[in-house]
Specification:
The chain is α/β, with parallel strands linked by helices. About 35% of the residues lie in helices and about 15% in strands. It is globular. The structure holds pyridoxal-5'-phosphate (PLP).
């Protein structure tokens, strides 16, 4: 930190993104991207004619894409907010809905960005422990104490909180916003989008980064009551009105037009997830029952850190969180069948090596 940085940020620990090696030599299963490319419609849409329009600013309201999303999710276009990745919505929400008297509550094991936003804005954060089986106990979120942020399915566990529990949390927080981060909802979970019609405090956040194969385009969206969308716009127009570039808006429209393609990709990823889960369990791994495009796994014969390192040495990149309770695990993104076969093969090699060492 230089001597010019405000002292406000002296203790700030920024978010550490998963590794993005630029030489592309790894089987990359560490940041939950889709292993499949964007749809043919997206590739076609990003043509020279679209690039030529880059001299003009994009539509700051993004109406064309909002109308398409509204039709897909059966809400009004005024219920949709577009953002530069869904991280931006979380950022805006912490800024808009929290302050000295309104703190934030989220699970102790969840998306690593939540505590960073709380620290950035000096917001008091209460981290509620997950149960021993890594599921969320809804009770502590039902006290109308502060903004609630829940990833559903949760990351990095992949476990889902049932819709009726989400409804209970929304109903018991009449004075606070409840954010439901549905980044991984398209891989087998039940979306709570329809609940926004009943609960004006419910903000459902989704992204094009995972199920829609567009992590590089940076596009997220929120679905909520008109009032909450207006609040987010208030923040957006006070920071960066053109937060989504033209090419990303165009790609987003084409992506929503090719919903069937993405549904098929998600089905394939879920099928691969079940196959890999079964094989890992056969090899003696504990695998949490994920409804996301990743799995949390652990085994008694190897530590999480050693599994991460061993796989990396063999060219497979997974994610390890050096954090209490999940230190023994690694998180593995579900890739193509071919990628997962390499992962399984390298994992089996590590087990053989461990057995050989134990015999010595
Ligand atoms: C990936 C992810 C996001 C953010 O994705 P964007 O690329 O910023 O849209 C948000 N929440 C969770 C839980 C995630 O895993």
């Amino acid at each position: 930190m230089s001597r010019f940085m405000s002292e406000r940020f002296a203790g700030l620990h920024a978010y550490t993104p998963g590794e993005q090696p630029q030489d592309m030599q790894y089987v990359k299963l560490n940041t939950n991207e889709s292993p499949y490319p964007p749809s043919p419609e997206v590739l076609e849409r990003l043509n020279v004619a679209e690039i030529e329009k880059l001299q003009l600013y994009p539509d700051p309201e993004g109406w064309a894409l909002r109308r398409k999303l509204a039709a897909l999710y059966n809400v009004g276009a005024e219920n949709i907010f577009l953002s530069n990745g869904s991280d931006e919505i979380l950022n805006f929400a912490f800024l808009a809905f929290c302050d000295e008297t309104h703190g934030v509550l989220f699970p102790d094991i969840s998306y690593g960005f939540y505590p960073v936003y709380a620290a950035l804005y000096g917001i008091t954060a209460k981290q509620m422990p997950l149960r021993a089986d890594f599921t969320i106990d809804p009770q502590p979120y039902c006290r109308d104490e502060g903004m609630v942020v829940i990833a559903n399915p949760n990351a990095p566990t992949g476990l889902e909180l049932p819709q009726e529990e989400i409804a209970r949390i929304a109903a018991s927080n009449p004075n606070h916003v409840v954010i439901l981060d549905e980044a991984y909802i398209d891989f087998g979970g039940t979306s709570c989008v329809e609940l926004i019609k009943q609960y004006e405090n419910l903000l459902v956040v989704q992204t094009f980064s995972k199920s829609r194969s567009m992590a590089g385009a940076r596009l997220g969206f929120a679905i909520a009551s008109k009032g909450l969308i207006q609040d987010l716009n208030q923040i957006k127009y006070s920071t960066n009105p053109y937060n989504i570039n033209r090419l990303t808006l165009a790609a987003g429209e084409a992506a929503v037009d090719s919903q069937a393609y993405y549904t098929q990709n998600c089905a394939k990823i879920m099928e691969t997830r079940e196959r890999v889960t079964a094989q890992l369990r056969k090899m003696g791994f504990t695998v949490l029952a994920s409804v996301a495009n990743f799995i949390m796994i652990r085994a008694d014969w190897i530590s999480g850190a050693a599994l991460y390192r061993g796989l990396k040495e063999k060219g497979v990149l997974v994610r390890h969180f050096d954090k209490e309770r999940i230190r023994d695990y690694v998180r593995v993104t579900i890739g193509t069948d071919a990628q997962m076969d390499v992962f399984l093969e390298k994992t089996a090699e590590l087990r053989e090596e461990a057995k050989a060492r134990a015999k010595q």
